[in-house]
Amino acid sequence: MSATDPILRLESVSKHFGGLRVIEDLTLAVRRGVRTALIGPNGAGKTTVFNLITGVFPVDAGRILLDGADITGTPSRLRIGHGIARSFQNIRLMPHLSTLENVMVGQHCRNHGLRGVLQPVNLVPRNRWREAARAALANAALIQYEHSTVGNLPYGVQKRIELVRALMAQPRLLLLDEPAAGLNPAETEALQAQLEKVCAGGGLTVLVVEHDMHFVGALCEQVIVLDFGRKIAEGSPKEIRENLLVQETYLGTPAAEPMERHSARSA
Amino acid sequence: MSGYLEGVLVLLAVNVVFAYGGFLPLAAGQLNLGLAGFAAIGAYASAYLSNVFKLAPLVAIPLAGIIAGAVALVVAVPVLRTRGIYLALATFALGQIVQAGILNLEVVGGAAGYPVAAFIRLPTIAATAVIVVALVWLLFATRFGLAVIAVHDDEGAADLIGIDVRAFQIAAFALGSAIAGVGGGLYAHHFSFIEAQYFNISLSITIVLYVLLGGTQTVVGPLLGAAVFTLLPELLRASAHWRYVAFAAAVIVIMALRPEGLVTGAQLRRLFGFTRAEHVGLPKERTG
């Protein structure tokens, strides 16, 4: 776990939308096994960074390296096979499928060829993929929802199901886009417990975009601060809280408690 | 069995097959208004194979399905580049091209129609329909079914999960067209005479209606849709002049009351007693 062992590196990455420079010459590294937060004001480019890492948009300049391998030109569909899984800011489960079926969809990238596609996951009750998905749901205390249509479930439960689905790909790097946004305190706590369980294994690196600084402080060991598509600070949660520049651009002075919860979509 | 009853049941079985031809692309989120064209390819291919090469209908019909599916596979690549209303129009045009092509194909009778020598009866047709339903049901119980519905629900998220969105759309389109081709073959060998005019846009729209009204989320939906909308007009026969009005009104009422179709996935899961978890589970939701 040394600073010289990054699992993810962005090198001088830029992304413009028309005249809007959303990401500008951004260089950052996420160290292996270090739970890292990406914070910043709305419009700082946090979600865009996720979309560049997962290949939703191509970069205009720069390189993205995963475990030293250049994935800048890898199509979005194949990046999960390299070990990058993500959750979404607005839940993107498949609303017409049940919880269990959604989790089984998350296993897709581990199935290859015609044999993988024709796995009888909904036909054979003891199919090994089905059993694995049920075990993951049981492990996350979500098994009671296995046959519920996800569209009808509470928001907080859906967020946790999305996390289970992302983990079914057995990723090396997990990107979570505002996992706690819109959750009530009880739901946030349940999510945090689930995340801590997930990270306990040690084989997974987590990068989180989050506005809730209590959540970030409790979960993350490293914080990267973004503003106008540039990195303005990096350090432990404690260092970041005490950083004057970050206070000025984002957190506000300590007197300005309680901290405002942003919910608008960040670019 | 009376000739009338057999006629209705044959129509029901053929319509059920057609409905599954429409179901596959719709389950993947794509409207195929060229189904009648693929049914026509199947009907004419099967008729030609049995008339000219003396193949038995039970050999000719599956071959005709494969031919319709192969044609669909070739055209799918350019046609499925379009989306939404443009895809609907592109597939509609495809159906028109097939129809116009057959009208000008003298080897199968052109505009005069094409007699089909080999005859099949209700048991064969019903058995084929049962096999088609069983195969689609089996297919949708595999990962293929999950992937197709995932593509329908959220293409972007499905792509990031590693699903080859385009491959599944093309597969659903081609398999659906092959099934429509089988339906066309069944029709040709029972009615002993086919003409291009029968395979028009209104046939395509009727098939799509079966699926949309029955429900696109489950394998049961098309079966129910085809059954209800084949039998309903027959039951309404009593009021000879008004039956099509009543039928159209029924379509509108169902669309208003059940916008996602008569059968939905959530409803089926309820029917099979899976609700207990939902009702008991909610208050039990852990709070940390």
Average predicted confidence as pLDDT of chain A = 89
Report the sheet-strand fraction of chain A.
Answer: 15-25%
Number of DSSP strand runs of chain B: 2
Biggest interface, CB < 8 A = A-B, 50 and 40 residues
Strand order of the largest sheet of chain B: 1-2
For the biggest β-sheet of chain A, the strand order reads: 6-7-8-3-9-10
How far apart the termini of chain A lie comes to: 32 Å
Let me know the largest β-sheet of chain B: 2 strands, antiparallel
Shape of chain A: globular
Shape of chain B: globular
**Tally of contiguous helical segments of chain B:** 13
Classify the beta-strand content of chain B into a percent band.
Answer: under 5%
Query: What kind of oligomer do you see?
Result: heterodimer
Secondary-structure-based class of chain B equals mainly alpha
Order of helices and strands of chain B: HHHHEHHHHEHHHHH
Largest sheet of chain A: 6 strands, mixed
Distance between the termini of chain B: 66 Å
Helical residues, percent of chain B: over 70%
Number of helices of chain A: 10
Task: Average the pLDDT over all residues of chain B and give the rounded result.
Answer: 90
